[in-house]
Amino acid sequence: MMDFQNENSSNGDIPLRNSPFEDDVVAYQFIQNEETLKFETQLFSQKWFDYRHLTPLQATRLYIQAYDEVYRRHYAQNIDHTAAKYVRTVNIDDIFNGLAAPESSTHKKAKMQFTACWHGRQMADLLGMPYEIYLDLAFEYRLRYWNRNYLPQPQHLYSDWGQNKSCSKSYAKLERSGNA
Q1: For residues 120 and 115, what is the distance between their CA atoms, to the nearest angstrom?
Q2: Prediction pTM value
């Protein structure tokens, strides 16, 4: 089995470039839906220009890092400011450790989180938005109707097309005001 860990992943850095072949192997191994993978070719011309040099896996890593930052910020705003820095969110190392061990109890959760982050990243790419802005808008929209004691997880931030239309409209307003 291929080692999914990256020597730079634990300190939060995106590697300069993994082998695109290795990234493709990871994608095909854990993203089972062929339509999801074919969709990547359509996203290249629409994704935020700073992300166009990244492979889909590198972009998903960056999305997960942005999710962590945005989650903590919203946790501080909505739940507990002092505890926000201690909150454990989705972690790329935990996901890859779970994916690399199919017999482990964490494999199913890791696969679900990886797929959810992949789909969320694709939605941000489709809208042509930086990941942090997309996630911030998605959290704001989702929290309007959120009646739970925890914040939305990655799988809650991309599935609602109405939410993504809302993000698109909000981002258009940001662009017009010059803040994007």
Answers
A1: 9
A2: 0.76
